[in-house]
Amino acid sequence: MALLECENIKKSFEGTEVLKDISVNIDEGEILSVIGPSGSGKSTFLRCATGLEKIDGGRIIYDGITYADTKDGVVTYASKGDRRRIKALFGLVFQNFNLFPHMSVLENIMDAPLRVQKRDKKEVETEAEALLGKMGLTDRKNAYPCELSGGQSQRVAIARALALNPQILFFDEPTSALDPELTGEVLKVIRSLSDLHIAMVIVTHEMAFARDISDEVIFMENGVIVQKGSPEEVFNSDSERMRSFLGRYGNI
Amino acid sequence: MDFIQIIKLLSGGMAVSIYIFVVTLLFSLPLGLLISFGRMSKNPVISGIIKAYISVMRGTPLMLQLMVVYFGPYYVFGIQVTNSYRIVAALIGFVINYAAYFAEIYRGGIQSIDRGQYEAAEVLGYTRVQTFFVIILPQVVKRILPAVTNEVITLVKDTSLAFTISVAEMFTTAKALASSQTSMMPFVAAALFYYVFNYVVAFTMEFFEKKLGYYR
To answer: Of the four, A28, B73, B87, B114, which is 20 to 30 A from A142 by CA?
Structure first.
């Protein structure tokens, strides 16, 4: 059974169809990259999967629990209890970090495990420190987000998402707000997560990164999945459209 | 009559002024938050009523509002009010007036918070109440502090309006004293009192602003 099943997802904004018919499955520990031109619906798909946007049609199932379903054209969402159980399964890393500015780095990471999951403080703190170590930010634990570089902020945001022990981590263009030098440090951290055996769905414009890290790659355009397959299949595709899209990124 | 004596005579009034000030803040700050929720409500009936209320509170003189609260029960409902109702009426008048202003300040602050903060909190599993009190409100407080300071300083001076319904606050006493002594000194003392009071208020608010200055 897949960890996340999305079937025939549809989403419109004021009459404009942004997602036309998206079906994606993600297995435990699988790394999926979503690539495609701007406005293709990549981010919207992520926002629908994480419940930040309500879908207009289709079905979303997390670990066997139905999150959203459509019957006779009417979309219904899971009960409050089920939604809470599903929320515990996934984390999301935003393009612009969305750290809480009034909390220190450590508080940003620890607050949700303490307040939402009601876990033991000692244990959470030990885990948070370990995560910061993994992110190379041990010396910044008492800093505030305004004192961090973009790359550091994004690494804190990743640590914050990981602190809740998700089974799937979504990344919404995690390096798009960063300059090339800072992009590298964030990609390195994401790469290092692959041994945690957490499923990852990464919307990205970093083609080389997507090719190296992914088990599967999806190419989206105009709200539909145009290509889907292993990185080799997608990046070596003969399709005219793929070639012209990838051509813009130079040699990868 | 020397200055020290004037101050002594005014001290009872000063206590009343400070009392009005403290009670008004104590009630209008939380009430303002509640009203701002109503103002932002998606229910058009609720937001409409609140909008009208804020419009009246901001569009008419506070002096008149105090008179309405004080004389209203008698002229509208025929209820005989007692002398002790004076201070209650003053407090009600101040609280509902200031709550309206604070509500708009809160609204501005709440609406200035980036949507990403709500989204991050939602994905992390915070409930709506937790999101508001743990994530949003602390940031709102920091942002609205300068505007709140303005209102609080205005309130110090506005307490003198309680004289319209003969509450024996400081300014009422000063006026009575000035006419009985045919001296300007009570007014000088009054000015000094308001200035020192506001100096302390401004100092305190600056302290809070500095305390919240640890982040941007």
So the answer is: B114
Write the DSSP symbol of residue A31. Answer: E
Which residues does B82 contact at the CB level (< 8 Å), separation at least 6? Answer: none
What fold does the segment set A4-89+166-247 form as a domain?
Answer: Rossmann fold (3.40.50)
**Residue A112 near chain B (CB below 8 Å):** yes
**Cβ B119–A144 below 8 Å, yes or no?**
no
pLDDT beyond 80 at A104:
yes
Q: What residues does CATH 3.40.50.300 cover in chain A? A: 4-89+166-247
CB pair distance less than 8 Å for B124 and A144: no
- Could you report the per-residue pLDDT of A130-145, keeping only the tens digit for each? 999 999 999 999 999 9
Of A102, A116, A144, the CB nearest to B124: A116
Q: Which of B125, B126, B138 sits opposite A88 (nearest CB)?
A: B125
Write out chain B residues lying below 8 Å of A77, CB-based.
Answer: none
DSSP string, B73-136: HHHHH-PPPPTTHHHHHHHHHHHHHHHHHHHHHHHHHHHTS-HHHHHHHHHHT--HHHIIIIII
Q: What is the pLDDT of residue A240?
A: 87
Q: Does A77 touch chain B (CB under 8 A)?
A: no
Average pLDDT across chain B, whole number: 93
Contact B215 A144 (CB under 8 A): yes
How many Å apart are CA A124 and CA A120, to the nearest integer?
6
In CATH terms, the fold of domain B3-214 is MetI-like fold (1.10.3720)
Q: Identify the pLDDT of residue A251.
A: 60
Give the mutation candidate from B124, B129, B132, B140 for the A interface (greatest A CB count, under 10 A). Answer: B124
Radius of gyration of chain A (CA): 18
Predicted TM-score (pTM) of this structure:
0.90
Give the model's pLDDT for residue B152. 96
Mapped onto helix, strand or coil, the DSSP state of residue B33 is: helix
Indicate whether A126 pLDDT > 90. yes
Give the start-to-end residue ranges of the domains of chain B.
3-214
The predicted model gives A179-198 an average pLDDT of 89
